[in-house]
Design brief:
single chain, mainly alpha, AhpD-like, two-stranded parallel sheet
Length: about 170
């Protein structure tokens, strides 16, 4: 986890939070990770309404997104879906929206990094974090794209049962 945290920090560093969350949300949703879609959908609430985030989850472009951000969402989804199918024209579309080569790299690294970590979480069967239970029920349902939501209370490190198992 420490190594993933270090990699994630390096991926996030050059991006503003809104852009990072949009790319991460798009990739997580495309990969059908309920946990990551909910977590990053919640993070997007700092920038967008629940209705706008739900629209993004449906593949729509709410008016709160710029044309460049809509292109970013499509591109991040394409990277997550099948990076080998991404073409020079796809990259050119982003660049036509004002993204530099370095920014395109950052978007790719974010979507690819999410693909990596989503697969780790899904393979380990990580349950949805309890704080996500506070999200509106309809919003949570709209962002449930893979495994059904199953909230668990994490064991504490000072729990004798955890020490016996861990």
């Amino acid at each position: 986890m420490r190594r993933w945290s270090e990699l994630l920090a390096a991926i996030k560093r050059p991006m503003d939070r809104r852009r990072f969350e949009l790319a991460t949300f798009a990739a997580a949703h495309e990969l059908k990770s309920t946990l990551c879609t909910l977590a990053h959908g919640k993070a997007l609430l700092a920038f967008f309404s629940p209705d706008d985030i739900t629209a993004m989850a449906r593949g729509e472009t709410p008016s709160s997104l710029s044309a460049a951000e809509a292109a970013l969402l499509r591109f991040a989804r394409a990277v997550a879906r099948d990076a080998s199918a991404v073409t020079a024209d796809d990259v050119a579309t982003l660049k036509n929206h004002g993204y530099s080569d370095a920014e395109v790299f950052d978007i790719v690294a974010t979507a690819a990094g999410r693909a990596f970590f989503t697969k780790v979480l899904e393979a380990l069967g990580v349950a949805t974090d309890a704080p996500l239970q506070e999200l509106d029920t309809e919003f949570r349902a709209a962002l449930t794209v893979g495994r059904p939501v199953e909230f668990v209370t994490p064991q504490r490190l000072d729990d004798p049962e955890f020490r016996a198992v861990g």
